[in-house]
Amino acid sequence: MDESIDVSDALAHASHPDNNIRSIGEDMLKRLQNLDLPNFLLYLSSELLREGIPEESRALAAITLKNSLDSKDPALKDAHKDLLCIKWLSLDPSIRSEIKNKLLMTLEFDSRQSHSRHPSSKVIAKVIARVACMEIPRNQWLDLVGKLVDNMASSSSSLKQATLEVLQYIFEAKIPKVVKGDQVDVVMGSVISALNNQMLDSQVHLTALKALLNILEFTKFEDHAWRNSVVAVCEVAGRINSGAEIKEAAFECLVAIAHTCHTILEPYKEIMMSLTSQALEGDVESLKFQCIKLWITVFQEEIGW
């Protein structure tokens, strides 16, 4: 039997609601993985692009692919991650290239399928970020960041959001040399552009803020870049239609900026105070906490504590 059919069949069984059938499917997946890891990973990436695949099977394909590349056991995380990295890098470069191409195609595939995002989209973003963190420090997949930035020029909101999630997870991993200094500025520009685009929906803005939060830690900004980021964050937080979750994410970014370069916030203190007053009058405790944290951070930085 063609192994691609075996993988489809195994995914269907492993995502079945019946415990016995699901157990059989899980065993099938383990056998296929042990039998031929390179083609197993390739077939999983192909399943993500298969028309008509049940969402349960697709989600499981994404999770299985992620777990094949990243450790899910906190006790063994670092050692297991290193082993999985060695296994990945030992695969034939042509196989790895095909898998990576399919993963990037999945971002566009999802954006064309429907207006709503697939439940597996976040997992796929994590897979791409994981591969990036394994390869880019070793001078491989060097064109990834450029391709992600190109995606941000798309008219598709769902493609923008999926791409922002990939960027969020890449920077969240805090792997040195994954994104070079000049690329960080380009990525930053694309994220700020998304924040400034009021035509995009709130979920895109929220994802952009989450990506921005992780990018801030890696960036050595000139003053104009800092100003652009502060203006964009304050503007998003101040919009009437911005929900509490977006406002909270915006304040998290302002806290991070205050930690790194509090003086850049000086021209924006009036609007920050106005946003703080609005938040404190509301009933969202987590948002209030971020507001208070911002001003404590500013105070501590100003007195050099």
Automatic annotation (TrEMBL):
<keyword id="KW-0539">Nucleus</keyword>
<dbReference type="InterPro" id="IPR040122">
    <property type="entry name" value="Importin_beta"/>
</dbReference>
<keyword id="KW-0813">Transport</keyword>
<dbReference type="InterPro" id="IPR001494">
    <property type="entry name" value="Importin-beta_N"/>
</dbReference>
<dbReference type="GO" id="GO:0006606">
    <property type="term" value="P:protein import into nucleus"/>
</dbReference>
<keyword id="KW-0677">Repeat</keyword>
<dbReference type="InterPro" id="IPR016024">
    <property type="entry name" value="ARM-type_fold"/>
</dbReference>
<keyword id="KW-0653">Protein transport</keyword>
<feature type="domain" description="Importin N-terminal">
    <location>
        <begin position="25"/>
        <end position="109"/>
    </location>
</feature>
<dbReference type="GO" id="GO:0005737">
    <property type="term" value="C:cytoplasm"/>
</dbReference>
<dbReference type="InterPro" id="IPR057672">
    <property type="entry name" value="TPR_IPO4/5"/>
</dbReference>
<dbReference type="GO" id="GO:0031267">
    <property type="term" value="F:small GTPase binding"/>
</dbReference>
<dbReference type="Pfam" id="PF03810">
    <property type="entry name" value="IBN_N"/>
</dbReference>
<protein>
    <recommendedName>
        <fullName>Importin N-terminal domain-containing protein</fullName>
    </recommendedName>
</protein>
<dbReference type="Pfam" id="PF25780">
    <property type="entry name" value="TPR_IPO5"/>
</dbReference>
<keyword id="KW-0963">Cytoplasm</keyword>
<dbReference type="InterPro" id="IPR011989">
    <property type="entry name" value="ARM-like"/>
</dbReference>
